[in-house]
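Sat 14:20. Reprocessing the chain from the morning session after the first attempt stalled halfway. Input below, unchanged.
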Amino acid sequence: MSDKLKKNFEEPAISVSELSHTLYDTNVRLYETIRERNEMFANISHDLRAPITAIHNCIEYLNSLEHIEESDIREVLPMLESRSAMLERMIEDVFLLTRIDFADNFMHFEEVPADAFFEDIFYMYEADEQYSSRELSLDIAPGSDVLINIDVFYMKRAIDNIFKNALKYTDAGNFIKLAVSFKDDQLEIVISNDGQTISEKDLPHIFDRTFMASDSRTPSANNGMGLGLSICRGIVERHGGSIYALSADAVEKGCEFHILLPTGTG
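Finished this time. Tokens:
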């Protein structure tokens, strides 16, 4: 055996102790991932029961009638439609999270002007009847006419999730604001509202998939934040960006969601 081969044989690149620590850390991360997924799917299973039960009750009601009239069908159609849409959204969310975690190349990136992209989004909300009772405003700072390399569909999905969250926690007459600015080679998108604040206890966890909001923001209790904010984080990070929220003492009222995106092709 040559001296070189003997040295390589006798002096491994990594010691047994280092290898043991690496395996231990990997096992811990794997355990946490499995635990998080199990908890997430337990929450999803719980959330799925409500729309499924409502649909089942509608069917039972129709089956209980000796003669089904058109008026009977029309009575239950709105419930069937809304609960079916809810189920569809939940299934889409789970599917999207799986793609974010494991799929490659499912996003289709293109360079678009940032100011035009966010103007289109804002005008979409202005025309949406859901937001008619809120004061919407758009602030695009000078210099924000830069190119961003994004998947238009999924970035709109991320923004939409935050807007829907703002709508949920903002009363009629309050504002929801979209602000866009360019600084330090990054585009900053801020979606703010003057609705309910997020408690200091909840704030570090709102992007977690297994997070359930505390009663301070959701008096009805057991109303989780859903998967919407987790999906936002996944989409933004797939774009090479970051997302965070400010609330409580950091803002005067309500909360702010900040998204930072690289500009150009990077």
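Confidence is low (pLDDT under 50) at residues 213-225.
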